[in-house]
């Protein structure tokens, strides 16, 4: 994968703000980097096409299937059950995408430094370099959390001349990530130069996330207090100084068009275009049926896991306190607005999405979506994905067709800053009643339609809030990796106690149900994953390891320059 990066061309014409540019043949065209506009055009692909292989399927296959928020009954079972191998599709797509991002970022850095003309302002030059280092750091953060030690590559040409590339230690990779984000924070503006571009607040938000994670690296029990303090500091800076704000309605975050809204800190910028690489294809993969799609809709066996639904207060009730076989057989309901915006339960209505329905005589007609109930004879159903599912072309002003959707995908939202602050303030304590941490936690909690949480905060409370806030945004797995750095046994216990099996959801009435019952499908026996120290990290894909056997050798520290 890495060796092919130099010849990957990512310039292509499409139609959205800074993505609108003339086609070019190569990233190393010395005649291209001569004006501010050309330099900015050169960094635009870093916001979409280079991430394509990750966002399309691997982001949710790793982030949510491995994380346990979502399960798939008949596909991607290796990710659901922690059997991801060297040849698993999600593993190969993720690894490839991350090194494509790194390779293109490195190439851009080298070309700007070598070819930027006299007409390119120093601000724009540094801006593009900061964008490249920001994206490189983001790719490396995913790599190190999935694979552990990985090779740090900052010069593609040197790599091609070094077939014995070695992995670098986890500590080295996190230091490299931190330095890239610090450079980005120092060189990006406080407001975007064009809508959708990252800013210093995007970089400081990533630093908050990075320091919270680094606090556990190499720790055994207690996390690094210096890094916890830095995480809290950067999170509060973004909350109080960025000008960003939480949207009043959670569901509005995922309705079209929501792109680059007041809560967004970093999004992948997708557009409706004939160019496959620049369109959002993830929607095709997660939409439950073509009845609400555009010749696609392949996510019919995807849905919220039993474990996930149990986190919504009041939803899954306990029918018999002495056994879990009866869980959910009494009608349950939740006040948490995030459920309807993330997963669909029978009877839930979404007037913004058109549904093709067939009458008894076979006539087809369109109506607003009412998520269907299972038949009387069924013994399984799915709480299908709603988040990022935006409907038919007619619902999007004509801006959709098969595997061509225009909606962006979040990489960082302001809500995460509030919860990072809360977790960092809790730190190594068992509980905390810190007033500001509670205030920030409740900004997210009450936005979901829930009464204020009175405290005290614990790690489990913050973790479960993060899971409900960011389900189907590819973060759950990385929350567990963060925990695994300093408390691996607790991470294994969470994963191994998650029920990831089939069940059936029945409303008490249709439409407008006032409650649902949940019954596990007794014949479905593969309900639990088995996570341990031998399968927690992903294996390096076989195709890559066979070409570079040195990747199997012990990692070495990275030698940083001045």
From TrEMBL:
InterPro entries: SusD-like_N, SusD_RagB_dom, TPR-like_helical_dom_sf. Residues 263-552 form the RagB/SusD domain. Residues 532-562 are annotated as: Disordered. Residues 89-212 form the SusD-like N-terminal domain. It is found in: Cell outer membrane. The keyword Membrane applies. Keywords: Cell outer membrane, Membrane, Signal. It comes from the Bacteria. Belongs to the SusD family. This is RagB/SusD family nutrient uptake outer membrane protein.
């Amino acid at each position: 994968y890495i060796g092919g990066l130099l010849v990957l061309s990512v310039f292509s014409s499409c139609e959205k703000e800074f993505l609108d540019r003339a086609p070019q043949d190569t990233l190393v065209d010395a005649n291209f980097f001569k004006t501010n506009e050309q330099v900015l055009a050169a960094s635009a692909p870093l916001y979409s096409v280079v991430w394509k292989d990750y966002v399309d399927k691997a982001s949710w296959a790793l982030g949510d299937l491995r994380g346990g928020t979502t399960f798939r009954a008949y596909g991607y079972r290796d990710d659901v059950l922690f059997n991801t191998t060297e040849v698993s599709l999600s593993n190969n797509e993720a690894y490839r995408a991350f090194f494509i991002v790194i390779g293109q970022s490195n190439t851009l850095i080298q070309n700007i430094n070598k070819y930027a003309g006299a007409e390119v302002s120093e601000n724009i030059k540094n801006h593009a370099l900061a964008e490249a280092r920001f994206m490189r750091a983001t790719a490396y953060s995913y790599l190190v959390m999935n694979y552990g030690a990985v090779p740090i590559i900052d010069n593609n040409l040197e790599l091609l001349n070094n077939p014995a590339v070695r992995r670098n230690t986890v500590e080295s990779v996190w230091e490299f990530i931190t330095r890239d984000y610090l450079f980005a924070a120092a060189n990006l503006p406080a407001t975007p130069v064009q809508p959708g571009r990252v800013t210093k607040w995007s970089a400081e938000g990533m630093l908050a996330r990075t320091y919270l994670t680094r606090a556990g690296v190499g720790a055994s029990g207690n996390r690094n207090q210096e890094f916890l303090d830095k995480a809290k500091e950067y999170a509060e800076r973004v909350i109080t100084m960025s000008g960003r704000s939480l949207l009043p309605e959670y569901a509005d975050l995922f309705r079209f068009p929501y792109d680059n809204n007041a809560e967004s800190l970093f999004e992948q910028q997708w557009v409706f275009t004939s160019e496959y690489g620049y369109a959002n294809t993830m929607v095709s993969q997660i939409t439950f049926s073509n009845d609400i799609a555009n010749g696609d809709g392949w996510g019919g066996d995807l849905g919220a896991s039993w474990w996930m639904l149990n986190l919504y207060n009041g939803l899954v009730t306990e029918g018999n306190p002495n056994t879990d076989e009866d869980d959910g057989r009494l009608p349950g309901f939740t006040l948490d607005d995030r459920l309807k915006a993330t997963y669909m339960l029978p009877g839930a209505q979404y007037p913004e999405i058109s549904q093709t329905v067939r009458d008894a005589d076979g006539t087809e007609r369109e109506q607003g979506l009412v998520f269907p109930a299972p038949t009387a004879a069924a013994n399984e159903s799915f709480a299908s994905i709603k988040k990022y599912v935006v409907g038919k072309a007619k619902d999007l002003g004509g801006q959709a067709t098969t595997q061509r959707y225009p909606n962006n995908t979040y990489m960082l939202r302001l809500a995460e800053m509030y919860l990072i602050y809360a977790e960092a303030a809790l730190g190594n304590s068992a509980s905390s009643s810190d007033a500001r941490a509670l205030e920030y936690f409740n900004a997210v909690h009450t936005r979901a339609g829930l009464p204020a949480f009175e405290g005290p905060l614990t790690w489990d409370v913050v973790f479960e809030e993060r899971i409900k806030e960011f389900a189907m945004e590819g973060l759950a797995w990385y929350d567990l990796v963060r925990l695994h750095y300093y408390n691996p046994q607790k991470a294994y216990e969470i994963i191994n106690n998650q029920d990831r099996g089939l069940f059936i959801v029945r409303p008490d009435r249709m439409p407008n149900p006032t409650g649902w019952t949940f019954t596990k499908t007794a014949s479905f026996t593969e309900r639990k994953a088995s996570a341990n120290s031998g399968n927690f990290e992903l294996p390096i894909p076989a195709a890559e390891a066979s070409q570079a056997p040195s990747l199997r050798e012990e990692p070495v520290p990275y030698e940083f320059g001045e």
